[in-house]
From TrEMBL:
PANTHER family: RIBOSOMAL RNA LARGE SUBUNIT METHYLTRANSFERASE K/L, RIBOSOMAL RNA LARGE SUBUNIT METHYLTRANSFERASE K_L. The keyword Zinc does not apply. It comes from the Bacteria. This is Class I SAM-dependent RNA methyltransferase. SUPFAM superfamilies: S-adenosyl-L-methionine-dependent methyltransferases. The keyword Nuclease does not apply. Pfam families: RlmL_1st (PF22020), THUMP (PF02926), UPF0020 (PF01170). It comes from Latilactobacillus sakei.
Amino acid sequence: MTYQLYATMASGIESITAKELQNLGYETRSDNGRVYFEGDLADIAKTNLWLRSADRVKIAIGQFEAKTFDDLFEQVKALPWDQYLPLDAAFPVAGRSVRSTLHSEPDVQAITKKAIVDKLSTVYHRRTRLAETGSVYPLEVSILKDMVTISLDTTGPSLFKRGYRLEKGEAPLKENFAASLILLSRWQPDMPFVDPTTGSGTIAIEAALIGRNIAPGMHRKFAFEDFDWIDATVLADAKADAKAQEKPDQELEIFGYDIDQNMVDIAKLNANEAGVLHDIQFKQLAVKDFKTDLTNGVIIANPPYGKRLSDQTQARVLYKEMGDTYRSLKTWSKYILTSDLQFQESFGQRATKRRKLYNGRIQTDLFQYWGRPVWPRAEKAEK
């Protein structure tokens, strides 16, 4: 059976997730912060395992227009719920409504739940209350401009929860957001990579996972594993296929630095849990002390911005140190994430490009400084 699937992600990341899906072999369509694609059970497992930038993979069970609660009730009830929910299914319904006639989210949730209960009670010939003691099937009713989407979440806890973060710092970057920054940079595994303010190591760890081609969902659980219509072999086969694509012999030059030795120790702990500690060189080092003879590299930094340091002046001193330190690295590309709109003045250079991104609820800008790599010329073939 082929399902209408879609991936959700943070605002500003849509094109990255779409590109990931296209690289996995899917035709995509982006609409209102979602990237739609089609697939079967194997594709549900595959995309949950492999998507680095997304939050969740959902099945769109139904989409329709509704401006009254009667419309909503009847159209929800008409959906083939017995194909998705067994008799004992626990099915919590989350609700969202944006710029729609049916604007009361609690009422939208309640009506949707009642319609599903009525349908299942009819199909399963139940006159008493449904037990809901079985596996959890997380549902959502989302209404945008009167267009309703009823979906089943196949992921469970967000895909950023890779399972390797044992410890964290004060303001950790979500794993899928860190991966998105790397994918945006177009870094390749044969290029040096530096995370100069590594904190708990997330950016460096995600780079190593990309470099080794390790599927980010290999060590976590998914909601669909408990669905009674998805056999355990589906995920087992997807994991076996992903394992066969890993590149254990890939040589990597990935460096994670932090001024705080305690954070370096935490980063090492997390990297070890992710299975990539031997791929990353962690070291206590201040930004201003960074030097390298390597060329054609990528620097991605998530430095403490004013909100985290509670001292914007101190943050801007760090930005200036970055500018002074990186200015001579002509062949390197630098990507710095911050919410400080005056960053360029402190850094001392106008960015090649700026991209607006949301780090959680904090609006940030990714300041991009593109380098000019110098690649060795291929030797001319002898005639």
